[in-house]
């Protein structure tokens, strides 16, 4: 079992088009705090980002936000956090969130959410860390993505053990259990070696 102390949440600065997404974000915030874990996230007070942070704070948890200076107005910085770190760039934001976190979960979100969780997954494939990453698949939001990842394996652009590094769960507690039980694969990072 992994000794988790903090979980990073990537999610939309929008609430999305279904109230189930906000409800899931709030449930995840409460579930993280319920296990005595710290929440790390992108530092905004809007959309699902604000929902997960507010739920964790209301449950008495520790919440650390990391926000680039350029987005303090656009994403509307959350001023009620345990700690808000304002950094110089998106690159610094992602590096700091990775440093502060033992595991990563993508809730529903858009391009930014996908970019963040895929970078973490890629770093894991390359052996830069051994931390788990997963998708909270609220109402099948990530079904298409899961199918695409399987397709990439079928087309020999991705190895099955690397696909299996990604955890897909629909329930917050099941997700946290899976993160705690995660064991990184021991495989070569490349699909194949070119002929010399």
Description of the structure:
The chain has helices spanning 19-34, 47-58, 90-100, 111-125, 143-154, 160-163, 172-181; strands at residues 6-10, 38-41, 63-68, 83-87, 103-106, 133-136, 166-169. It is of the alpha/beta class and 196 residues long. It has a 7-stranded parallel beta sheet, with helices on both faces. Helix 2 links the parallel strand 2 (38-41) and strand 3. Helix 1 runs parallel beside helix 2 (47-58). The longest helix has 16 residues, at 19-34. It is globular and about 45 Å long. The mean pLDDT is 94.
Can you give me a brief rundown of this structure?
The chain is of the alpha/beta class. The chain is 41% helix and 16% strand. The protein has a seven-stranded parallel sheet with strand order 4-3-2-1-5-6-7, sandwiched between helices.
Strand content: 15-25%
The major sheet is characterized as: 7 strands, parallel
Approximate shape: globular
Q: Roughly what percent helix?
A: 40-55%
pLDDT averaged residue by residue: 94
Contiguous runs where pLDDT drops below 50 for at least 5 residues? none
Index terms:
196 residues, alpha/beta, 7-stranded parallel β-sheet, 7 helices, 41% helix, 16% strand, globular
Task: Please outline the helices and strands.
Layout: E1 6-10, H1 19-34, E2 38-41, H2 47-58, E3 63-68, E4 83-87, H3 90-100, E5 103-106, H4 111-125, E6 133-136, H5 143-154, H6 160-163, E7 166-169, H7 172-181
Parallel strand pairs: 1-2, 1-5, 2-3, 3-4, 5-6, 6-7
